[in-house]
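3.2 Worked example (two chains)
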Amino acid sequence: MSNLTRDHVGLSDTFASRRYFKKFEGIMQHMLHVAGVQRAEGALDDAETEILTRYAAKLTHTFKALGMKYLLAGRETGRFFGSLTMDARDSGFPVAEEIMTMANDAQQARGHLDAMASVDTLKDQMVQTMLGERRVPTKLQFALSQRLYYEELAKGDLFWVQNDVQSQWMGNLDVGRRQFRLHWATYDSQVNLPVIYMMELEDSGDVGLPKDQRRWPEVQAHLSAQALGGLKLLTIAKGFDEDFDDLHPKRLRRFHLGPMYSNAYTRQAGPLREVLAEARAPDGQDWALVWTEEELVSDRVIEQKSGWFSTVEREVFALDPFAAQGPDLGATRQERSIILPTSVFQVLDEKQPAGFGSVRKFVVSSSGRVLQY
């Protein structure tokens, strides 16, 4: 059995750690622009764009908090504090344990803040140390970074390992037939990547799903338990369809955010690694982010016998037999996209590596504008 932690790397250099968080802060902003491009072309509607934007904002807040936590990584702070651990091979993102630890810290954030000196007090002490003792106040800088870390946690709105299922009412189709969009997200611990799910369903129950005190907790628990990157969308949708006779999943989508490739930080193999090495992009532009969307849609409905005298609706899902992986893909379609700066795209376009012809390219200009190729 392989050791999954052998490709986990600690960012123990202060400036490397800060550049890493700065890089992700920019990438998350570019993701928002990409969502805007897809909205303009009709690939996403307003509600779907808002959902993706919300999760991108949560990821931004999470990286900001981690950036504060490890602001003094590699510096002598008077205590051993460690450094951010990232997955250098599979994802380029922080490992899931970092998010788990942050969740535990968030539960105790208020207590830590009550016991800490205020930001203004710490800044005053830093000035006095620099002017009076003529030395760098590293320990006070560390104390301030931790204060700011817990303040970010106390604000909330962060991306956790498990982000609970939320619902949106989409309208009534008929008397006793409602339509909802559910969305939830996870930080997949197997590959250390954030994954976002959306499901559109029809509800034929007596009470609207979010107000049903019996079904709603069961649905949330069921979907959270099935939010595993290794499960095919077909498996998730069929299991849901069979477990809830009055809920009818019509469309299920999954967005994998990542991997993130960077010549300075990651060791992934393949064409992108070679492209980044040849591009020799300046600091802040040495990256590429892969974004994969899977979609499963219902093709038709059949009636199945349930008990002696009743029947239930069951969905028959459409699979694409001509997809690269054939029916084994477990989805109606799969689309890969890549977001990358102009300098990296130019090398990619020149090399034309195999397998990238069908990949959508979103290119970020130096001004931050996103263009699609």
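3.2.1 Second chain
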Amino acid sequence: MSELIIGSEQPLAASYPLALVDLDGVAYKGPLPIEYAAHGLNSARATGMQLVFVTNNASREPQEVADQLTGLDIPADSSEIMTAAQACARLLQDHVPAGARILVVGGAGLITAVREAGYEPVFSANDDPVAVAQGFHPSLGWEHLAEAAYAISNGAQHFASNLDLSLPTARGFAPGNGALVGAVQSATGVAPLSAGKPSPAMYRMAMEKAGVTDALVVGDRLDTDLAGARAGGLHGLHVLTGVNSARDDILAAPENRPHFIARDLRALQETQPRQGREETWFTSGNAAVTVRDSRLVIAEHDGVDELDIVRAACCAVWSHVDVGGEFDSSTIPNFVTL
């Protein structure tokens, strides 16, 4: 059984020396700010918590990302940005000799990272690359994916900055790098090595850079941000401002489960309630939840915060399904305040 939702008697910013913060869906959504993101992050930094922004987006240079954050009232330096492009270049160093030609399928951020790692970026399979580094950029088209497929079919190794199937934008969710990688994989039959989340490699790199051995992962996606936290032995905070919902938390597989759940980044300056158990009932704040006959049962109580219901429901459902119990997901209520 995996660890359940946990509590914190101190504000999270005082409990962890570093926050590893995702960008899309957490700090911003496309070009738009997310409510309370600037307040939460700036307040956490003011109380001594270090911040490193860790993103699966490989299309942009760290300075460009830092400039966007600063423009959204979240002052940031390029040294506080860890991109999947940088992680992909680091992964190349584990497998490809320095100075080799790398076919880069991606944006300026990936090109720069590959070059700074000691490789020669090329853009055609005719240049005999020994590897393909693939990352997302909105300008990518069929011809770029075709060059990758040609190179891989000729024996080049395939490396992906990340495998996110979708990408949050101001208009909704669009195909992500994983969808484009899937097209190349379908054409070649070769599965790539991936550097991005849910691999904890970027988290380790960021902690080493910050000089700490522990950190709080903050993200909106269970299968990348929070799965990376579990894989790296770190605690994860799921904020409900992006991809995954409170319902997703309750139904999460063990490897994707958060340790904390919050509406937004104000949670960094807040304590987190401890969960309790009384026989088959799990409690959080004033909420009490159990699973009975495969159904979620919520005790009636005035003034219950729906977020506490979610926390208690996670503990009840996870404990039930992890020992082989069946659960009827249709009994999860529609949460109106989350």
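3.3 Remarks
The mean pLDDT is 95.
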